[in-house]
Amino acid sequence: MYSFLLALIYIAFISLGLPDSLLGSGWPVMHGDLNVPISFMGIVSMVISGGTIVSSLFSDKLTRKLGTRMVTVISVFLTAVALFGFSCADQFWQIMIFAVPYGLGAGAIDAALNNYVALHYTSRHMSWLHCFWGVGTIVSPFVMSYALTNSSWNNGYRIVAFIQLGIGLLLLVTLPVWKVNKQDIQADAGGIGLTGALKIRGVPTLLTGFFAYCAAEATAMYWASTYLVEVKGITTEQAAGFASLFYIGITAGRFLSGFIMNKLGDRRMIILGTCVLSCGIISLLLPVANPTVSLAGFIIIGFGCAPIYPCIIHSTPSNFGAENSGAIIGIQMASAYVGSTFIPPLFGLIGNLIGFKILPVYLAVFIVLMISMTDLTFRITAKKDRRKEAAE
After folding, report:
1. What share of the chain is helix, strand, coil (3-state, %, to 5)?
2. Which end of the chain is more exposed for a tag (fewer CB within 10 A), N or C?
3. Angle 46-217-253 from CA coordinates, rounded to 5°
């Protein structure tokens, strides 16, 4: 039952990743049908991100009241309804309306399942959990491509909505399986709340580091193609294909990292990942005309990024206590969405002003901030543990 529950959680995380790359893959056609400028995709993504930030901040309260299993089921059904709404839309305002429940559902399931796996499973399973998110992001563009070839983008959303519905029904009928882990923290304790979590020593540095990492990851994802075209001079068609390797790199990296995470531990894996992605950033800085070097650089960055996000999340209960992890991970998810939402557009403005060749330096700034803040968090929490042991 323990392994079966883990498989269900992995499937639920595929459902989280499935819609994430639908908008980007379908928007080149969608914006024309909706009669809006192509830049309006940013508005839709901002509304979705706003919903995820709000639901992440309130996820601990919801989880304590309803339990992780019910939050997960409700969130999957909520995203299924939102995606079906997208599939029926023929006006931009309709897309905006359904973007709200989509964001709310995605943020709630993200925070709830991350906390649940951090509490009940090893760092290996956390890495594989995020690997399955990557599987979802890789599959959905193929679904949209099939829909665009044979019908319309609406049908692409409809197909994914039915997949989400199927996953929701599977999770609903298997609710008793969640009882295998008896320690799901629910309404028995009020929790520390958002304000209380922020007062815990080490939490502000953790949030800063997590914000910086997600800012760097999202910037690399969104601007890899533009960098290859504008700086390295390759065609847009080639760049689109090459940039997709970043997603494959981070997904494969999370799968492979799972085999060594339990041995090395969260802190060492974060340091190792930082060293690897730093090599990727350095390769982008090399004054080499051959674009293959830059291509390899983005793949290396993806591999380096792979263990960092899962390990930061997984280390939260051990650093701050299981009773506090729900609230802290909720805030972490919110800080992640803030970083991934606002920092990539900021790079776009800077790139337009001084050139897109600044991308490696931009990434390096956030990576330095990330590793310094996360390692400071580990030092702070280790010092608190030593003081506690001395007092006992």
Report:
1. 90, 0, 10
2. C
3. 130
H or E element at residue 14 = helix 2-17
Q: How far apart are CA 358 and CA 341, in angstroms?
A: 19
Torsion angle, CA of 244/75/165/15, rounded to 10 degrees? 20
Instruction: Please choose, from the candidates 161, 116, 178, 138, the residue with its C-alpha nearest in 3D space to the C-alpha of residue 325.
Output: 116
Measured CA to CA, the distance from residue 197 to residue 321 in angstroms comes to 11
List pLDDT tens digits, range 100-155.
999 999 888 888 888 888 888 888 999 999 898 888 887 888 888 888 889 889 99
Give the Å distances, CA to CA, from 151 to 77, 148, 339.
Answer: 25, 5, 36
DSSP string over 283-307: HHHS----HHHHHHHHHHHHHHHTT
Q: What is the pTM of this model?
A: 0.83
Categorize the per-residue pLDDT at 237 as very low, low, confident or very high, splitting at 50, 70 and 90: low
C-alpha dist (Å) from residue 311 to 34, 266, 388: 41, 5, 24
> Is the separation of the CB atoms in 366 and 343 below 8 Å?
yes
Provide the token pair at 111. 């925070």
